[in-house]
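Hey, can you fold this?
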Amino acid sequence: MGVNYFTNKQVKELQGNKYVKHVSNKAITYTEECKQQLYEYSLQGLKAKESFIKLGFNPLILGKRRMQSLVERTEIQAKRLDGFKDTRKVNSGRPQILNMSTEELLKYKNHQILLLTQENIALKKNDLIERQALQHYPKKQKDKNSK
C-alpha cells in the first residue's frame, strides 16, 4: 500500500483552489467551507467525484480514495458539536497536568493508579498461566528447545 504524493506541479494547482487551507507533497488540508459544501452535496446525493469537480478540484490529482475518505469524514464531522472545525490543536496530546486544579489532578492520578493496578493483575495472571503450562507440559518444552 503506497502513499500517493503530490508532484510540485500538482501542489501549485491545489494551492490555487480557494477550498484548500494548506497543501504539501504528502497531505492536503481543506477549509471548513469546503467540508460544509461536500456534506451538502452528499446530502443531495452527489458522488464524491462530482462534488469535487463542482468545488474546482481535479479528481485525477486527488484520487478516488482521498476524495471518498474526505466525504466520509465530513459526514462524521457534521454530527460533532464542533462541526467541521479542525480540533487537532485543541484536543491532541497528553492532558495538561500543569493547568489542572487539585481536584482534577487527584482524579487523573487515581485513574492512573487504577490502570496500573489492572495492568499488574493481568501480568500476574499471564505469569501464572505460563508457569502452569510449564509444569503441565515440561517435556514438550524441553524437546522444542533441544531442536
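Oh, and this one too while you're at it.
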Amino acid sequence: MTKTGPLAAASIAGLLLYVAMAPAHAQDAAPRAAEATRQASPSPHSYRLDYALTELEDGKKIDSRQYSLSLGGGTQGTQPWQGEVQIGTRIPVVMKSDGSIQYVNAGTKIVGFISTREGTQLLRTNCDVSSVAPDEANVDGRPILRTLTIVNEAPIALGKAVLVGTADDSNSKRKFELEVTVTEIN
C-alpha cells in the first residue's frame, strides 16, 4: 500500500469537491448568463415621425402640411416597424365597358419604416402625392393627375429636422420639400 502525504490528500479532496460542485456552479451560471443577455439586449423603443411637406413658389412658402406616425413599442427582431398615413379623394376617371366607374386616389400617402441593419437604425420613407390638374388641363372631360414621389433611406437622427427629399414641379415654378423629425417616445 502506498502512503500519501498531506499534500496529496488535500489535492484529492479538492478534486472531489470540484467534481461535486461543478453541476451546481453550472446551474447558478445559467441564470446569471440569461440575466446578462436580457440586460444586454436593447429595451423596446417607440418613435414618433413628424413629417412636414412644404410647397414653395419662387422661394416663398405657400403651403405646409404636417403628418405624424408612431412606430415601435416592442422588440424589433428582423422585421421593420412600419406606419402609414394617407389622406385624399377618390376620383372617378373612366367608365368601363360594362358601365361601371373606375376610381383613383388623389392625395398624400406617407409610409415610414424603421429597421436595423448592421447595428444602425435606419428610417425609410415612401411619400406619394397626387393632385388633379386644373380644369383647363383635362382631356375629353377626364381629369389629369399630377404626381410626386420621394423615396429615401437614411440613418436616424433623433430630434433633428432632416430633409428627406426635394422636387421641382416641371409644370410650374413650385418646389416641394419633405422633412422628418424623429423623436424617441419610450
